[in-house]
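W.,

You were right to be curious about this one. When I first looked at the sequence I had no strong expectations either way, so I just let the prediction run and decided to look at it fresh. Below is the sequence, 143 residues in total, followed by the output.
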Amino acid sequence: MNPSDAELEAIVQRGLFAYRAGLFYEAHELWEDGWRAEPDPVRKAFLQGLILVAAALHKLTRMRSPSGAVRLLDKAHARLAGVPEGMGGLAVGLLSGDVARAARAIERLAREGKTDLDASLVPRMEIAGERAASSLAGARPRP
């Protein structure tokens, strides 16, 4: 691992701690600091994808805007599309699939007039290579 990979993983981990605690705005802010300084376009797209996921969840859970959340999740899915698996230490494919699934589920909830997000819909941010059931619980916000 080169030094810039280690720096990216450190940035991801700082935001991940907040994200897993359900502190989506704070996670967004932590990742945004790294995004601003990142010169590599793929790494920048990756960080922007994380930022957009966190911002979408904040928009839904705090601002009660399902349409805004879906719009941000769709943008996040597009940003993550060209990102290689394992970037920043994360299972990017898993995250990308969860982002698309969450957007569609939120659209259905909105049609029913609901904005409460079931914790099972929160896109998982798992460490690449770790798919154990025990890690899934840690990727969800606390109720």
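Here's what jumped out at me. The two ends are 36 Å apart (CA to CA). And, maybe more interesting for your project: Helices lie at 3-20, 24-37, 41-61, 66-80, 92-111, 133-138.

Coffee later to discuss?

I.
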